[in-house]
Amino acid sequence: MLEEQFVALAAVLAECTDTPDDCWFGFWEGRGAAQSLGLPEFGPRVKIPDRENFLIHGTVHDAVRTLDSWGPNLWWPQDRAWFVATDIDLMSTYIGSSLDCARALRTCSALEAVDTTAANSVTWDSDGVNPLPRTCTTRTSGDEGQPLTSNARRR
What we know:
Layout: H1 3-14, E1 23-28, E2 45-48, E3 51-58, E4 74-77, E5 83-86, E6 93-96, H2 99-107
Antiparallel strand pairs: 1-3, 1-4, 2-3, 4-5, 5-6
């Protein structure tokens, strides 16, 4: 996500929580660049399946802080009014929130926001709005390394 998008997203989300000055951020430790944020080697962590994240505390507007140009992979306010997740291997950011917050996100012109459900796929090629890059490759049985074109979607 571009820095301008983090700024816009943080502005909307700050209005959708009662604790905008009390926010948690998880940065995936696999990037190996914790020094850029001054994170202690043995500091607090948050673990999710296959990902361990450095855990830092700040304000919602601190989402623009980066770890060698990468934003936080996870972030949420203390009151848990919403939750933001950006997986290192995917092209989208997912936000769990109230309906009012989701409406505010959709009306923000600086963001591309669409509704989703748990039934929707969360894969690299499941974005129905943005086509895959022409140079994208996926590995599935029988077609290892074959390039996908923007109209060749896999489900």
